[in-house]
Write the structure tokens for this entry.
Amino acid sequence: MIIGIDDTDSNEGMCTTYLGALLLEELQEYGNIETLPLLVRLNPTIPYKTRGNAAVALKLKTDCPEKVIAHVTSRIEELARMECEKTNPGAVFIQDKDYGRLRPVLMRFLEEAVRDVIEIKKAKDLISILGIASKGFKNGRGLIGALAACGAMLDQDGLDFTFEHLAYRQKDRWGTPREVDKKSFFEADKETYPETWDTVDLTNRLVVCVPHSADPVLFGIRGESPEIVNKAASLIRAEPVERFAVYRTNQGTDMHLLPAQNIAETRDMHSYRLEGTVSAAPKTLEGGHVIFAVRDREGAEIDCAAFEPTKNFRSLIRKLVPGDLICLSGSVTSGTLNIEKIEIKSLAPVSREENPMCPECGKHMKSSGRGQGFRCKKCGTDSPSKVRSEVDRDLDPGLYEVPPCARRHLAKPLAREKRRDIRLNPAR
Ligand code: ATP
């Protein structure tokens, strides 16, 4: 049986992955857990999300499905933050005999939940047409994520996955500041990067894998395999861990990006890979956000932004000039593309006027007076006018990303790219 769960938490506490970790242990009373639990990140622009728009799926071999459904339902009732308006839990239960029948439909539903916006009605209709056992609470919005998570569990062989070791705090510490030895995160990163990523942000000297909210997560280590995330976690020195779970996840895979053929087809609340030419130079706005315009082949334009939280990434963006050919990855919100990654494909030549060089000594000539050309006093050479020379752009073509402190869960880090023209953090 596959169990999909979503939308149990609020900003004041809980985390659907924690409920997943509890159920992993508790459901052993009713059967055997068959594979690693799944942590699925859905459309990152959805306004109903609490934090990272995550849903969870577990897979269990059981001969008492009714007991499993009753147990999961009662644990959601006990633990979900029902008092929060934004918390609308949902759980769905797929029987083994239905895997083949439901696989193609739920795989499509997953893709839509990651890349598009879905109405609650669509999830409820699908559940009733396909005869899926489910339990929705309040408006039942969590059924969307719960169905999508089941789709991911049914497509384990077809999707790109990474792993996360999530360590949880003891309950009496929830809501208090986390006691962690920051240095140990830098040591763990040094030992395991690039097989792990987003543990620390070296340029900005930050530990990025420890949340600051009231939820039960102590830290989460992301990486390419269960072994490597466990190894990094074993190097962390921190307050006692109540439990941990290693999740298989679509984090760090770029699964949210749609290839955009042109700007006209881009819509708010969707994420794209979009190619175009810089058409207006970057400007720094109040608050430190850097905005510039990109034009496509049809002449349409879109504003693109490196917002203040992208920190040092903005100094790269400020070096762009009109005419640079780029390919951007990012989400569109209020008509502006929020950049996650940039590939600089070619740089426009930039030139400036300057005094001519003396062919003898190689130094710049001096003006001989208004309209009288230029002259090198030392060598006696002269030239009638200024010359244009190409300016060094101080920027190389290649692929660049926002720093770990500004990374979207779904964005594929360059540490996972096996290309040679990537621009890894120079601090390494
Ligand atoms: P956490 O990750 O900490 O558990 P969260 O950020 O995942 O919190 P949720 O509480 O799960 O946020 O809220 C997101 C809600 O949006 C869920 O009800 C989910 O079903 C719904 N949802 C997810 N993807 C889509 C989508 N593509 N279209 C419409 N609704 C969606």
